[in-house]
Amino acid sequence: LVNATELNAMVIDIKNDSGEITYNMDHDLVGEIDANANYIMNMEQLVKDLKEQDIYLIARVVAFKDPLLAEKKPELCIKNADGSPCRDKDGLGWVNPYNIDVWEYIIQVSKKAVDIGFDEIQFDYIRFSTDSRMKNADFGIEAEEKSKIDIITEFTKYAYEELDIYVAFVSADVYGTIISSSIDAGLVGQNYMEMAKYLDYICPMIYPSHFGEGNYGI
Fold this sequence. Notes:
The protein is an alpha/beta fold. It is built from seven helices and five strands. Strands 1-2-3-4-5 form a five-stranded parallel beta sheet. The chain is globular.
């Protein structure tokens, strides 16, 4: 398609929705939790081949939806008040955005992608879960002083500053509905204007299910 059309970029999963790393990444924690799925057998060669064709490469890194890390490192997962792992409707755990060790892992994985030639890191699930089972979750002491929006904005700023040193562009997928709904923004922790200050690109995702009858007079 790239050779036959005007397409000139590719988004490739590096850390997917299951928390798996899609190639054999040399990283201590990745190895410890057995996250290497190795779906792409030779990522370095793939990147080299694509760069030779002048293709702009975007590494998709799923941030806080990481059931694998949550399961293998329960100290990093979102917990219930009784200390047990908090799971969504699919039985999956999420990692705690208030935990700085989670931040470090995400950034280290991102830097590995830049090291092998990716031009941009695109964060997905850079938010809190909207699952009703998360309503009574215990996010820790820091959550008493900082809102969800505060901490997601702080992570965005931190990620941008860390990756800027690596001369990588940084983007984020956000819910489109946060632009006009402060309720949705607060629920997921995404403030469109504040996050945009620390991103090269921001991608509002528009889902019909997010808009009720009468929105925008429709």
